[in-house]
Amino acid sequence: MLTVTSVLLALFTVSSAQQLNFTHHAVLDPNEKFQLNWNPAADGSDYFTFECVVATRGWLGLGFSSNGAMAAADMVIAWVDASGNPQISDRHGPAQGNGYPPVDSKQDYELVSGRKNDTHTIITFRRKQDTCDPQDWKITSDTTRLIWAYNDQVPTSADDISKHTERGVQSAQLVNPQTKDGMATILADPSTVTYDFRITNVTLPTDKRTLYWCEIIELPTWNKHHIIANRMLVQKGNERYVHHLVVYGCGEEDMSEHLGKPSACFSDTQVFSPMQKCTDYHAVWAVGGEDFVYPSNMGAPIFGNSKQRFVLLEMHYDNPDLTPGITDSSAFRFYLTEQLRPVETGRLTMGLTVSAVELVIPPKQQRFTNYAYCPGKCTSRMTEPINVFTGLLHTHLLGVAMRVRVIRNGEEIESEMRDDHYDFNYQTPTFLSKPLVIMPGDDIIVECTYGSMDRDTMSYGGFGSDNEMCLAFMEYYPKRNLSSEDCMSFLDPEGLLEVLGLKKEEINIGPQ
Ligand SMILES: *[C@@H]1O[C@H](CO)[C@@H](O)[C@H](O)[C@H]1NC(C)=O
Ligand SMILES: *[C@@H]1O[C@H](CO)[C@@H](O)[C@H](O)[C@H]1NC(C)=O
Ligand SMILES: *[C@@H]1O[C@H](CO)[C@@H](O)[C@H](O)[C@H]1NC(C)=O
Ligand SMILES: *[C@@H]1O[C@H](CO)[C@@H](O)[C@H](O)[C@H]1NC(C)=O
């Protein structure tokens, strides 16, 4: 009997050693104890395959949640039992609050393999993108809040799951047509060059948790290149503090007076002034974000334009425990080529003009939507259709959902440029599975929905993180020959005040 068991175990080890190759990877916690690899459903398959690599010898849990809480979340718990056999259990969060997750009446998670060594448990499973089980989460191209947990205690059965000792939440884009292969090709290509936009040694404050750090950088006088990929290089050891980084172009603005004078982006009374002028985003990374790789025939121009000399780096640091003595010099690495690619991409911004009199959100609203328009009258000035292939939807802390709607001849066309689970703390470009075509004459509506239940006062548009924005940054091809492209809604401020029954001197709008 003993022999049979060993043979079975040996067989199992062999089959699980045939490694699946995963195209996607995310680290779900700052200590890199919970790592996730996955393959999105592709090539006619409905199945997503996930591999959890977790620093535990007990159980691990992964969940899909609309807001990061356990309540009503879809969860799967897996472990390798005392006999060395992997086990899996499809479960869901309690209807309200946190608590023991009941087992689903229908089991939709299929174990592929599982093993553990002295330090880690590695479980691979698959599930359908849409299991049609109301107790499961339908995976969409929206941001997904992944909740994770583990405990070193090995369950004796699916009814013996002890409470987690570690837990957390991390957003991810699970349906993401980009793969790691593109990056591997770029890294292997000898004509690839890199340029790092590095933060110069900022010391995190110990009196407040959040720091937005702004720094103007002068571009080198290189020949024109195409940006073909980018990757965030977080300084080793600072993974838990580096939250997001945006590289904005400053157009043709002269920012030389700000060189060598990095500072906080916002204080109680003012905003670092280049924030208003440098708004053409080149790249953005947020915690949990993967490398960004352009399609192999496309590139975004950079350098080689003596009038566009400056960029603004905007870094968000988070130091919740106010740990002293943290200094950071993280960088955003751009992968570039001088062998210009056939298709050049451009960026187009739509949304509401950033101003306190353009955007007003009342307090205590579950969902409150603002609309920005780029009417056909404006898009008809384009001489040819454009193809939006990626973009970034952007609000501040109150944002819960955003979408770009396109109306052609009175009919709405399908747009993947949307996110019903927006997470300010996970700003990552949206990847479209097929380009969103904007034709001359199309009406565009940018919709921004906010949740203000925990605010006691009005929130207004502005650059501070407590102020709000409603912007869709879209990247498209073929690039048009314009230095700055946007189509912004602009409300009549007097009209807005009248609707609100306010006089100008009655509004207190915070830093602008
Ligand atoms: C995984 O990648 C390796 C190396 O590229 C390859 O040899 C192997 O066949 C791949 N495995 C599968 C299951 O595709
Ligand atoms: C256990 O597995 C993990 C994940 O594959 C690996 O990183 C680690 O080095 C392994 N540890 C040992 C002792 O083999
Ligand atoms: C960064 O700043 C810290 C504190 O001001 C200083 O001790 C350290 O030497 C600096 N490091 C570099 C590389 O400049
Ligand atoms: C773009 O416009 C500039 C200024 O109008 C012009 O000099 C340049 O030749 C144009 N480039 C192309 C590719 O049309």
From TrEMBL:
One GO MF term: copper ion binding
Annotated PANTHER family: DOPAMINE BETA HYDROXYLASE RELATED, MOXD1 HOMOLOG 1
Origin species: Plectus sambesii
Location in or out of the cell: Membrane
Secretion signal, residue range per the UniProt entry: 1-17
Pfam families per UniProt: Cu2_monoox_C (PF03712), Cu2_monooxygen (PF01082), DOMON (PF03351)
Similarity remark: Belongs to the copper type II ascorbate-dependent monooxygenase family.
Database matches in SUPFAM superfamilies: CBD9-like (SSF49344), PHM/PNGase F (SSF49742)
One CC-aspect GO term: secretory granule membrane
Alphabetical GO biological process terms: dopamine catabolic process; norepinephrine biosynthetic process; octopamine biosynthetic process
Stored PROSITE patterns: DOMON
Boundaries of every DOMON domain copy: 32-151
Protein name, as recorded: DOMON domain-containing protein
Keywords in alphabetical order: Disulfide bond, Glycoprotein, Membrane, Signal
InterPro entries in the cross-refs: Cu2_ascorb_mOase-like_C, Cu2_ascorb_mOase_N, Cu2_ascorb_mOase_N_sf, Cu2_monoox_C, DBH-like, DOH_DOMON, DOMON_domain, PHM/PNGase_F_dom_sf
Predominant cellular place of this UniProt entry's protein: membrane
